[in-house]
Amino acid sequence: MVWYLWNVSDKEIIAQKDAEISLLKAELAQLKKLIYGAKSERFVEEASPDQLSLDLGLDQPASQAQEVQVQTLTRKTQKPSKSKPTGRQAFPAHLPREVIVIQPQVDTTSMRKIKDQITEVLDYTPARFKVKQYVTPIYADPQTETLHYGVVPGRPISKGMATAALLAHILVSKYVDHLPLYRQHKIYRREGIELSRSTMAEWVAGICRLLDPLYEKHRALLLEQNYLLVDETPIGVMDSQKKGKLHKGFHWVYQAPASRMVLFDYRKGRSREGPKELLQNFEGYLQADGYQVYDFFQNREKITLLGCMAHARRKFNEALVNDKTRAAYAMGVIQQLYAIETKARKEKLSPHKIYLLRQDQAKPLMDQWHRWLQQNIEEVLPKSTIAKAIAYTLGQWDKLYGYLQAGHLLIDNNEVENKIRPVALGRKNYLFAGSHQGARRAAMIYSFFGTCLQHNIDPEEWLTDVLERIPQHPINQIEVLLPHKWAHKP
To answer: What DSSP string describes 351-373?
Structure first.
């Protein structure tokens, strides 16, 4: 028999190498998820006889809780539910019907009609340009020697050849449908209309100058809210001072859940100066992810900083390959917390009843989870993925716990993250903004269109109406043109 003597330093080296191997395995697994994994973040908790759990008496199991995005290695094809109708849905009633009667190719004079058999197919008429030609006859009054003539309607852009409808269509195509101006130029050319990209770019700039007072009012009203969600997303910007390189700017995105207003605020960087300046007079709840810039607001007396449970969940999802037992337990707890939120949403509970439900079911679960986190942080390798997940959650604990304070608060800031998606799609199409001013204009339009979508308003219909009215609209009544006000216009 051979005996090996290990000294303390050897054991430390082995432990260190084991930790490095574990970390590299976790990073490799995460990379495989990004490359090969499905976008679904579904997590099904595995029951364990020795796993600590709480019976909360929920109407549905934790595995059916609201899903937060997780990347998985397996792809599953979901079969359609048998309870759902499989037949073709009827076409919307609001669509105009062109009735075409097809008679039999025989003499039906002596026949009795039994019924009409109706077959509907969906047709499409391509959009067509038309020219509005205003004719203003001029009349002379011989008695007064004065001239009389009609007044041509004003245009959003002075002496411009485009109507409000065309201008609105160009902006919606660019910022909602993600069609850069050069693609729109090609589409219009197929219709025999030559609209240069430079002309359309000038129109976009002109519209934004016209809407600038409306944007200022929009921003002021959003900042009067007492509960905001915030996140940020990068945007490439051409900078004359950086030849051959793109400047990395940022759109800071704010959402007010109560009024369903969305605000994009462009800044040249990702430092705290952007939100610090914008929110200098803000009072209330501010919900964000774990980005350290937001920690500045913890020292503000009239601001309560809230965290995002979805971000904590992602940390444990990444740790599944490192320590499945602990990571799965944490994700199971989070699933139960989301199940409570799903229950409140399905039952359409009032904020007060949501508060009581959380105090009864979510608070005990959070307290138990906190004790588990404090215990397990001492039992894992400091540099492991599971350790980072636990440390992140403990570091954010007061902010994550904060949503229990009131029923109108949300468990995460996923709502504002969803508002960032149009920017991400836009980046894939137009790649970058032509200037810092162009990025600011994009922020303005994204703010309006994002709020339109929150209120189920057709952004093209809203913008067409606003562009027709705003040139003559009183500046002290401009608030009524904002999307969330326009939605309730008489």
So the answer is: HHHHHHHIIIIIHHHHHHHHHHH
Ramachandran region of residue 42, left (φ > 0), alpha (ψ -120 to 50) or beta? beta
Other beta carbons within 10 angstroms of residue 168's beta carbon come to 24
pLDDT of residue 218: 96
- Contact criterion met (CB below 8 Å) for 384 and 323: yes
Nearest residue to 474 via CA among 124, 156, 214, 112: 214
Residue 253: closest CA among 223, 267, 232? 232
pLDDT beneath 70, residues of the chain: 1-12, 15-16, 19, 23, 26-27, 29-30, 32-87, 244, 422-431, 487-490
Q: At what angle do helices 436-454 and 164-175 cross, to 10 degrees?
A: 100
Q: State phi, psi for 487 to the nearest 5 degrees.
A: -65, -25
Can you give the pTM of this predicted structure? 0.78
pLDDT at residue 400, as a whole number: 96
Output the pLDDT for position 191.
85
What amino acid is encoded at 131 in this protein? V
Instruction: Please report the pLDDT score of residue 198 as a whole number.
Output: 92
Using CA atoms, how far apart are residues 268 and 51, in angstroms rounded to an integer?
48
> Quick one: which of 483, 488, 489, 486 has its CA closest to 215?
483
Pairwise CA distance, residues 250 & 237, whole Å: 9
* Residue 469 token pair: 């009215």
What pairing do the DSSP bridges indicate for beta strands 146-149 and 261-267?
unpaired
